Amino acid sequence: MKTTRKGFITQGIYAGMVLTGITALISACGGITRASLRDNENNVPGDILTPDKAEILRLASLAPSGHNSQPWKIKALSPEELILCADHSRRLPAVDPENRELLLSLGAFLENLSIAAGSLGYAADIRITARTPQDTEIARITLRRETARPYPPERLSRRSTVKQGFLDRELSGGDVRYLSESLPGHCVYFPKGSQHARCISEGTAEAFRAQAMRDDAQRELVQWLRLSGDHARCRMDGLTTEGMGMTGIKGWAVRTFMDPEDFLTPANRQRGIDMTARLTSEGAGWIVITGYPGGVAGLIETGRRFQRMALLARERMIAIHPMTQMLEEPSGRQFLAANHRGDVDPQFILRVGYLERYPDPASLRRPVSWFVERG
Ligand SMILES: Cc1cc2nc3c(=O)[nH]c(=O)nc-3n(C[C@H](O)[C@H](O)[C@H](O)COP(=O)(O)O)c2cc1C
After folding, report:
1. What pLDDT was estimated at residue 42?
2. Whose CA is nearest to atom 7 of ligand 1?
3. Confidence category of residue 10, pLDDT binned at 50, 70, 90
4. Over the Cα atoms of the chain, what is R_g?
5. Is 101 in the pocket of ligand 1 (CB under 6 A)?
6. What whole-number distance in Å separates Cα of residue 96 and Cα of residue 107?
7. Of the candidate ranges 11-25, 161-175, 283-297, the one whose mean pLDDT is the lowest
8. 64: Cβ below 6 Å to ligand 1?
9. Cα separation of 100 and 315, whole Å?
10. Is the pTM of this model over 0.85?
11. Sign of torsion, CA 183 312 81 139?
12. Which residue, 125, 174, 196, 323, shows the most beta carbons closer than 10 Å to its own?
């Protein structure tokens, strides 16, 4: 069918209006993100902490944690003397019964704290005091005035866990060396297509399937879902649609038509299994981080170094997606043990890949005043 010039212009205007409408609809569909809550975040307890110390703790709390559970609590003995505690009400007993991931997350928190302190003109002396993974008190921290180290704090705010949009390209040798810098001898990259990468992809998909069938693990996950804006706003933790990478209309549909409990239906479990199986074959391959010795202190050290690597990865446009199910499921651990020497101690299994564009961090954080109390 032929189109006249007038018809062409009219159709163009209609098409423009429809497109603008769709774009407006999609942006109106946006769920709650960290950016939409900035004011709330700076809710500082002025009588316990000076503003710069509160800022150090805010930046520390941008650390990653399993299910975004944020298992940290700070007791402030004075503005300079802090105790980091594990908040055991935020444990994940079904997937992390021994607090392994909890301690890795606290390690990431301490690394952020140390970097943030340095960039704001403090040295953070950190002494690990926990002796068992069940201890509540984890570390004593003293902040001393020191010349500021030139580390842009925005780097801490920019990091996020990304799960989608990985490019199908191996990591360059230079980038692998750059990422391994903070974990010499404890970090191995398995490029996509290698025998080892295939094994990890299959093992991860299988362990995810086993976990999706485990009711206690799925009920625990549901407890950390924050689908409605109100729920998210009142908890400021856990997994929002945006935090899980469900953006635009997909996120809107999940927020509007689903309750957290719907994630338990067999059909939705199967959807998760299929999606994970697809994700495991996307990207540049896998990085496995092995643990540092020393029990609790070793796990904290591993979490600190993992965080250092995650911050470096962000600067090179490399996405990091922890996929921990193989370490959480007995069948996954047996599979690993059967195929490795006994002294190989994997603590993180990370899917990695370059991104065209790094999304703005979306996962929520509790304001500092929610996790700090007078000691
Ligand atoms: C110890 C640990 C284990 C994690 N395991 C997983 C996982 O199995 N699957 C996943 O999608 N994300 C995992 N994550 C990422 C968290 O879900 C993420 O850090 C959290 O939602 C906060 O988001 P952010 O990292 O973007 O700030 C893990 C993070 C940590 C620290």
Report:
1. 60
2. 323
3. very low
4. 22
5. yes
6. 16
7. 11-25
8. yes
9. 28
10. yes
11. negative
12. 323
